[in-house]
Amino acid sequence: MKLRIPRKKELLELQKKYRSDKKIGEVYGVPARLVAYWRAKKKIGAYSFPKYSEEKIQELWNRFGNDEKAGAELNISKAGFRQWRRKYVINHRPIHLSLEQLELALPDLSRRKGLRRETMAQKILARKSGLKRVEVGEAVDIEPDFAISHGRALEIIRKFQQLGADRIWDPCKIAIVLDRHHPGSTGSREPSLKVVREFVKKHKIRDFYDIGQGVCHQLIIENALISPGQLVLSSDPQALSYGSIGAFASSMTTDEMAVIWASGRIWLRVPETIKVTLNGRLSRGVSVKDIVLKISHGLLSHADYKALEFYGPAVGAMSVSERLTLVGAFGDIGFKSAIVPFDETASRFLKKLVKTKFNPVSSDPDAPFADEAEFDIAYLTPQVGMSTHGFNAQAIEDMVGRRIDQVILGCCSNGRIDDLEVAARILRGRQISRDTRAVVIPASRKVLLEAIDRGYIRAFVDAGCMILNPGCGSCLEAHTQMLEPEERALSTASWNCSGQVESAESEVYLASPATAAATALEGEIADPRKYTK
Amino acid sequence: MKNRIEGQVCRLGHDARPFQVMPRRLSGNSSDQSSGKDSLFEPTLKLKKGEIIVAGRNFGCGSNDQSSIELLKAMDVPCVIAASFARRFYRDAINAGLPVIECPEAFEAVSSGEQIVIDFDRLEIRCKRGIASFQAYPDVISRILSSGGLIPYARKAMGK
Question: What does pLDDT average to over chain A?
Answer without folding.
Answer: 84
